[in-house]
Amino acid sequence: KNEVEQSPQNLTAQEEEFITINCSYSVGISALHWLQQHPGGGIVSLFMLSSGKKKHGRLIATINIQEKHSSLHITASHPRDSAVYICAVRWGGGTDKLIFGTGTRLQVFP
Amino acid sequence: DTEVTQTPKHLVMGMTNKKSLKCEQHMGHRAMYWYKQKAKKPPELMFVYSYEKLSINESVPSRFSPECPNSSLLNLHLHALQPEDSALYLCASSQIPMIRELFFGEGSRLTVL
């Protein structure tokens, strides 16, 4: 069993749909990152969370430390949101090491 | 400047060649990372440098040799690679000791013939 599980693995949506991507983890963490990777490779850091909720534009990320679960929401989705979304957790032991989820491939159609 | 710059973007090399990948950032970050990513897989950590010293080596074969000549530069020297080493190599950096967000480069796509 992976230490970081994401669901769904693949997601298709129509433009303007509300999208939720989930991340569950089994280790104690000090922080959780949501990352976006477009075709071609470059990775962009969307959020880093250690508690609560963060919002940036149409993106919202939440984390529940007790339940070891985080969600990434996209409101009013757009085709340019099509990308792979990756959840990564930083171990609570203070290491620099991230454990990555397997990613969620999102396609938004007009 | 919030960029991590990686060069070259693409590299094709034979199994007997010696080449290097370069990574540069000017954000004052003192942690720098090399990741390897195969198609449709998440990145895998290879090396971490903290304060210009190697802090994590994820049992990477010696044909990959990292180097951090100063706080802005990170190199990955490649020698005698195998075709299965073909992948996207990503560099990242972050502030330490209070780690905030990670900044990634666009990656170097390596093909080993």
Layout of strands and helices, then pairs:
The complex is a heterodimer of chains A (110) and B (113).
Chain A: E1 4-7, E2 10-14, E3 19-25, E4 29-37, E5 43-49, E6 52-56, E7 59-64, E8 69-74, E9 83-91, E10 98-100, E11 104-109
Parallel strand pairs in A: 2-11
Antiparallel strand pairs in A: 1-3, 3-8, 4-5, 4-9, 6-7, 7-8, 9-10, 9-11
Chain B: E1 4-7, E2 10-13, E3 18-25, E4 31-37, E5 44-50, E6 53-57, E7 64-70, E8 73-79, E9 87-94, E10 103-104, E11 108-112
Parallel strand pairs in B: 2-11
Antiparallel strand pairs in B: 1-3, 3-8, 4-5, 4-9, 5-6, 7-8, 9-10, 9-11
What are its keywords?
heterodimer, A: 110 residues, mainly beta, six-stranded mixed β-sheet, 11 strands, B: four-stranded antiparallel β-sheet
Spatial extent as radius of gyration of chain B:
13 Å
Number of strands of chain A: 11
Q: Helix and strand string of chain B, N-terminal first?
A: EEEEEEEEEEE
Low-confidence stretches of chain B: none
Largest sheet of chain A: 6 strands, mixed
Order of helices and strands of chain A: EEEEEEEEEEE
CA(first)-CA(last) distance of chain A: 36 Å
Q: Label the overall shape of chain A.
A: globular
The count of DSSP E runs of length 2 or more, i.e. the number of strands of chain B, is: 11
Q: What's the total helix number of chain A?
A: 0
Portion in helices of chain A: under 10%
